[in-house]
Amino acid sequence: MMQYSQSTALSGNSLSLGYTHQKVKKEILSELDFTLFSGELTCLLGPNGVGKSTLIKAILGQIHPWKGSIQLDQRSIIDYSVEELAKQIAVVLTDPVFPGNMTVGQLVALGRTPYTGWSGKLNPADRDIVEKALSDTKITYLREERLSEISDGQRQKAMIARALAQDGQVMILDEPTAHLDLVNRFEIMSLLREIAHSQQKAILVVTHDLDIAIETADRFWLLNCGTPLISGKPEDLILSSQINQLLPSNRYRFSLTRGRMEAEEPNINFEIKGPQELVFWVKKALIKAGIQNLDSEVSVSKEPFLIRYKDKEFCTLQELVIFLK
Ligand SMILES: Nc1ncnc2c1ncn2[C@@H]1O[C@H](COP(=O)(O)OP(=O)(O)OP(=O)(O)O)[C@@H](O)[C@H]1O
After folding, report:
1. InterPro entries from the xrefs (predicted)?
2. What domains are there in the chain, each with its CATH number?
3. Comparing C-alpha atoms, which of 74, 52, 78, 75 is closest to residue 65?
4. Tens digit of pLDDT for each residue in 286-312?
């Protein structure tokens, strides 16, 4: 089989991580192997409490592995000083705390702190990098705006611009789309992929947003309790059914045709006739209403939208469901 090579930004080998409280050790992740590639947007997905933030803390050098190591440029993360690491890895956390009266420009300039020290004095090269970060995230127009006076989506772009100004090869974001609407979630993730591709950065995003991640990520890392980390192209993981690792219960499954998680269908004893896309929604509404048995066929037509059951006609599914219940 043909082998393709990609440039490794960061890797973990036989990594075990955990916490110790009052001499009691609690292992969270064990024997993890992974590679984060440059030029890719990687999404880390897994159920609540599986250890995603714990893994991020280890990558940021905030907790030390119990076993194994994380390598950045062939050097263990724990051998880097805080300043050295800040030049290599930029991080955007879920709920960043910055004063609301700080302007977007000032926030992005903070990304240069690892180079300027806390004096924050920017030289012309630093200023160019800040400008480029603003322009790459398409928020130059917000430079003078205060953080308290912009939207959540704009603030998240400003946080990404700050991370970009840090100019490291790796960017890590913990749920960057958590508070955003659908359009902004899509926009932020698309922006991150664009940056990964155009600047050859390795970008790792922790997210629970499977739909958007499928649309935008180059690679998934799937983390589940007690199993090795699964890494691969989202489409490969979907086609091989490994994506179902995200669903510990067999009440849900990933629909290959619709590209999303769905509740496992109960046994139904009715037939619906009509255009496929309409039949899909009629069936969904009936199942959700707990209707599994009907003694006659339902037919549905479009233009005008009409549902027929026995000798009755209904203009909405609401009317049909009320009649059947
Ligand atoms: N500082 C800590 N001390 C002890 N245990 C901790 C600590 N931080 C996290 N844990 C435990 O480690 C486990 C994994 O937590 P972690 O926050 O890494 O999960 P997660 O996958 O990021 O979850 P979520 O999706 O809910 O953010 C949990 O059982 C949690 O209680």
Report:
1. AAA+_ATPase, ABC_transporter-like_ATP-bd, P-loop_NTPase, Siderophore_ABC-ATPase
2. 8-247+254-260 (3.40.50.300), 272-324 (no CATH)
3. 78
4. 998 999 999 999 999 998 999 999 999
